Amino acid sequence: MFITCLDLEGVLVPEIWIAFANATGIEALKKTTRDEPDYDKLMKYRLDILDKHGLGLKEIQDVIATIDPMPGAKEFLDELRSFCQVIIISDTFTQFAAPLMKKLGWPTIFCNSLVIGENGKVVDFKMRCEKSKYTTVKALQSIGYETIASGDSYNDLGMIKASKAGFLFKSPESIKKDNPEIPAFETYDELLNAIKAVVCE
Length: 201
Known about the structure:
The protein is of the alpha/beta class. It is built from 9 helices and 7 strands, in the order βααααβαββαβαβαβα. The chain has a domain of 123 residues: HAD superfamily/HAD-like (Rossmann fold, 3-Layer(aba) Sandwich), CATH 3.40.50. The longest helix has 15 residues.
C-alpha cells in the first residue's frame, strides 16, 4: 500500500511568505526554505521581522485569502487521490492552511501551529515533531505503508530520500544540482505519471 506525501508551498500553492512579502513590501520576508535549510532559524527570523513591523496573524491571513492554488494543482490532486492515498506534509501552520485546503478540495494535511498572543501577535511557533517530514514518512513506513514523496525545497529532501520513490518538483536549480540522483519534474503531468508508474509497477 502506498501513500504519497507532498509538500504544500511551491508544489501546490504559491509560497505564502513571498506573497506576504509582496503585499507588505518587506523584501526580507521573501526568504524561504529554498534559501535557508534551518527551518527553526528561518521562522525566528520571520517572527522578528513581524514584530519589528507590528504585523500579526490577521494581516497574514488577509493575504492568504487572496492566494489561489497553482494552475492545475487541484486537478492533479484529484487524479492522484483516485489511485493513491495522499497526505500533504507541510512546515506551514494550521492558522494558514485552512483556506488553501478548502480551495484544494480538503486534502489531508499534517502541519504545525503558531502561538498567538495578545492583539493577534505571532509570538512563537510549535513544530508537530522534530524533522516533521522525515519523521512522518518513517512513521508511515513503520505501520506498513510504502511512501512516495515530492517537494521543492531543502526541508523536503529528508522525506524524499527516505521514501521508496522521491521526486523534486519545481525546485530551484541549486537544489537539483546538489541532488542529481533525484528525478526532477516541472509539470503535474510528469509528476503524476512518475507516481503512477511506481504505484502500478
